[in-house]
Amino acid sequence: MKHKISVLAIWFLLDQFSAAVPQGHATPIPETKPLFDLNGIGFVEGVDVPSAKPQPEKAVPKQKNQQTAISENSCIIPNAEFEELEPVSGAIREGQLNDIACGISDPVRLESVSAVGHKIEFSSPVTVSCKFAKVVAEWLREDVLPLALNNLETSVSVIQSGPGYQCRRRNNLPDGKLSEHALGKALDISHFKLGNGTIISVEDDWGKRTKESKFLDRIHAAACKRFTTVLGPEADPNHKSHIHLDTGCHGQDCTYIICQ
Q: How far is CA 17 from CA 11, 20, 21, in A?
């Protein structure tokens, strides 16, 4: 009995001592709280709980959207100002031949070509096929402009030419084969206006012993490396006033070049 009483006395003294200790020095037991409901409203990943480790993304096949498909089919002519047009066929002006064989499936209205800080404008925009416009732009950008800068010490600012597309036969004859103009693959150039205001005329300056005449000879020769047909004043009387350029097919494999 004495042993049992002493144990009770010890428990009583400990309880009294605990009550006498200031609460600020006590070590409180954390209160149990309910777990947060991840499905509850207000959950924000990275704020309410740590972000989950990102999973590697599965490779998804790239799909072409409509815009990409359209851009891939669009005409691209570097350093040129032009407008893409709806397909044309037959006569588009009064007095022209109205043949269903005439037409361009991818016409553009070419306005200007730029290179090394210079712009060459057409006096009136020309309507030609996209493919032909690319060749014209390359010739102007890579041949005509450098030749003018190197030999005339000025740029070419304006080109005077025909309209490009015309539903007609060769040399405007009433019968015979269609001209390449009728397919948007030809252009006739008559004058070059230089940056200093000088105007070079194919009809007036061709064949003379002047720097302007040499310029015409050089751009004519350069054109023969890009176009399949190049006809100047020496070709025949029909071309005494202009240089005719086209990309028509000559020969069985379309590689025969006519350069006159």
A: 10, 5, 7
- Give the Cα separation of 9 and 11 in Å (integer): 6
Q: What is the domain partition of the chain in residue ranges?
A: 76-259
The residues pairing with 164 across neighbouring beta strands, listed in sequence order, are: 127
What is residue 113's three-state secondary structure?
strand
Please write the tens of the pLDDT for every residue from 110-132. Answer: 999 999 899 999 999 999 999 99
Six-digit token pair at 91?
A: 């006569």
With CA atoms as reference, report the closest residue to 220 among 130, 142, 136, 144: 144
Look at residues 238, 234, 128, 121 and name the one whose alpha carbon lies nearest to residue 172. 238
Half-sphere exposure (CA, 13 Å, Cβ side) for 149? 13
Q: What is the mean pLDDT of residues 21-38?
A: 43
Cβ atoms of residues 182 and 162 within 8 Å? no
For the chain, what is the mean pLDDT?
Answer: 78
Within the chain, residue ranges assigned H as helices are: 2-20, 66-73, 130-139, 145-151, 202-205, 211-223
CB 171 within 8 A of CB 186: no
pLDDT per residue over 164-189, tens digit each? Answer: 998 988 877 777 788 999 999 999 99
* CA–CA gap between residue 211 and residue 117 (Å, rounded): 23
Mean pLDDT, residues 137-152 taken together:
97
